[in-house]
Amino acid sequence: MMIFLCPEYREIIIVVIMKVILSSSSQSQSCSLDYRPLVLSLNNEYRTSGILFTSSKNYLSDELSTFVGNMIKNISNNGILSTVIDYNELTTEIEYYESKITRPLLVFVINEERDLIVLETLSKTIDMNYPVWLIIFTGSSKNNSMCDYCLNTSVNELSLSFRTEMIVWCCCNPNYLHEWWSIDGKIFRKGYFGNWSYETGVQGVDKNSLFAVRSAVNAPLRIAYVTNSVFFKYKNGKMGAFMGDILSELTKTLNITPLMKSESIFGIYNKDEKTWTGMVGSVWRRDVDMGVGEVTMTVERREILDFTLPLILSPCRLYFREPNSTLQWSAYFEAFSSDIWMIMISMIVLIPALITLIKIHQSKKMISHIIAENYLNVWGIFCQQGLSEFPARTSLRIVYFAMLVSAFILSAAYSAALISFLAVSQDKLPFSSLDEFVEDGTYKFLVLKDSADYDLITYSKDPIWVELKKLMKAEPLLPPSVYEGFYQVCIEKAAFYASDAMRMSMNNTFPCDITYIETGRYDSLAMVLPHKSPYTGILNHQIHKFRDRGILNKFIQKHFNKKETKINTYNAVTIRGVAPILVVFTGGITFAIILLVIEKVIFFYARYTATTRSGSVTPINVQHFQHSFSFKVKGHNNFINGATKVNNDNDKFLFPLKNYYP
């Protein structure tokens, strides 16, 4: 094998297959064997980079050998690489080049019927859709049977398909280049390609793409769909939903007659039987020509199917029932972060201790009373209360002033943050990522039954998907449709893995309120065809035109981008709505009453204890003091039962008071 291509270039090779069996007695020719101008013209037309000559060495005559040698020399002088390979190696060479370059141009010269038989045999062993063919009928045989075949054939004997590109030149006269293809592998089609002559070269070739020229299928297509699909609906001969509108437009544009076939599931790979099930299996076995629905593009499916251009790219999400709006009991603490709360608690604990150290040497009170008093003062400052007596010492004034400013700032910030938490009733999600969903472990995991997502979960080696598989329901219990998936979410504690396009296709007909979290994956949804289908190219060409002309976007806007009109409703505030405030208010009053009762009990107990320790008290005989009495002020500490009138004229003694009554 001779490798002469640089992998950096996407090049088209001209492979000239010269399998010409010339009888030594056959010398008459109606056309010259010098096809170099035609080869060079096609080289310029397709911008090829090399020519591969193939012939049977056993039947190669001296004349043909000389001709091939001269052609290689002439083409090489023009800077084009070339070589000669036996035609028996063509199948191997085509398989090699199919994975290396885009498309070669194969030129096959037919001189006799035996050459045509060789070409028919080759067509059954190689992919006729991969290369671009140039078939030259020389008309050099003794009879004109090959010329008649070239001009009048109507049978597909060369395994042609809809996307086969085969250029044919028939016996020099007329100097027209035709193209041959087939509609469905059976119906033969012939069309005009261009003109060629030695003087002018190739002319009149349509510069548009193949599918712009070959713009209609004009044949029936077998189309499979899933009955419970939300992307495709078929009822009473009419197509609906997103892909239904696209397919309906395609059938009109390409003149396709749809032959519909229903399937119950999308299909997965059965490892035991090594086969595919459902709609995917029907397309894989070529029981149908196309499959429509929300078919996800995966690596495994791309190996056995052809996908059209993506119709929509949608993010995959995990949907679950929206939690009920709950009271934000923790909102009183969420207003500040944990760091700020720790600083505030530290200030309330440490500052009273600092004030106690400052006061302890100047106060005759018990230390426990000083500490309690300072803690009450500090707590009152943070509750926006003032001091009953502002201290005289400068050090204490600085401490209290700093606390007052700090408490004011913290109170203002706390009030603003608290209002925002209490004013808005937020839905607190139980998890916000797949990792948290796995850690929660209380929800069942749902995917569509017999879908690509099921295969992803089942066979994936990714750690997160392995954990999700443990939470997934058993296969018989998985939802068979998108609606069933969302229905299970509403009646059970479950989460449904689906694309956003599937959710939007439900048209908001959910049994309950649904919310979601992002998963980071995207689904590419497209139509599917059998591997190397002849219709893949023309469908992609037409879908590309739909996209350029806005038709595809029109269908997306119609089915997926519906904007709901939100009506602002203002509900009356209920008892439940203000429950946190009422609880705080009621709790404060209750706590104050409890403190009051405790204080009364403590004072009553202290008074009772003091009375018990002093012994019994003898009632005072008031009559004894009714007329007069006297006592020394500084020398005695007698109990005084009432008010006395003091005579300021004498500083040491009190004169008798008459008519005194306590």
Automatic annotation (TrEMBL):
GO molecular function: ligand-gated monoatomic ion channel activity
Keywords assigned by UniProt, alphabetized: Cell membrane, Glycoprotein, Ion channel, Ion transport, Ligand-gated ion channel, Membrane, Receptor, Transmembrane, Transmembrane helix, Transport
Topology class, membrane: Multi-pass membrane protein
Record's keyword annotation contains Protease: no
Predominant location: membrane
GO CC term (a single one): plasma membrane
Pfam families: Lig_chan, Lig_chan-Glu_bd
Domain Ionotropic glutamate receptor C-terminal intervals: 222-562
Single Gene Ontology BP annotation: detection of stimulus involved in sensory perception
Locations listed in the record: Cell membrane
Segments crossing the lipid bilayer: 340-358, 398-424, 577-598
Family (UniProt): Belongs to the glutamate-gated ion channel (TC 1.A.10.1) family.
Protein known as: Ionotropic glutamate receptor C-terminal domain-containing protein
